[in-house]
Design a protein that fits this description.
With about 250 residues, the protein is of the alpha/beta class. It is about 40% helix and about 20% strand.
Length: about 250
Amino acid sequence: MGVLAGRTALVTGASRGIGRGIAERLGRDGARVAVHYGRNEAAAKETVAAIEEAGGSAFAIGVELGSPGDAEALWEEFDRHADGVDILVNNAGIGVSRPIEEIDEAEYDRVFAVNVKAPFFLVRHGLTRLRDGGRVINISSGLARTAAMPNNMAYAMTKGALDVFSRDLSKVLGPRSITVNSVAPGIIATDNTYELLHASEDAWAQAAAYSALGRVGETADVADVVSFLASDAGRWVTGSWVDATGGSLT
């Protein structure tokens, strides 16, 4: 029996990358996992299969975030499979990395719609579905508090907003013994990271040098932190910003 046996988790953006790592870890911990995806159904099914092959239970739900009514649609799909949720991990997000003069209003609005508005309304419409004693875990970014990186300004702004959301929401949900926290990864080895860092010969080494531990993070490094916060061991941690950057902020 895993530490999360009998609980249901919803992880947004769980078809690949950090979200997939979190979903697989929560599945190994015994939770039944709703694997959310936006467009890549095949990848989501791979995540479900990986969880089931490891002895867990999971199902996929597909709703593209970032448009009006997305949160309601996601919960309606979720309701077809489960009657409540114990752990909500708001992981889905999109980025933009260009100078401010190259970002138009539509792109700015899209990043905020997916990274900030969607988590807010997923919680808003999930309040009656969240079980007392549950967990809300928002995946932020070290960029919200690290040295200024102007080309990532809009993305970092969304993560800063998500951190404020976590802090304030912890006060709202505290009376129900629901904890709310932000987990902030640094540079993590995902498909997107490989594409970006392999553009130059020494980019990977430079990325590793940002960390006090001298390496690029793995999805498991973030998933293990989420697992702790989701478990009974994390019951006294709420309203917190958890640095999961491997010391990249030191």
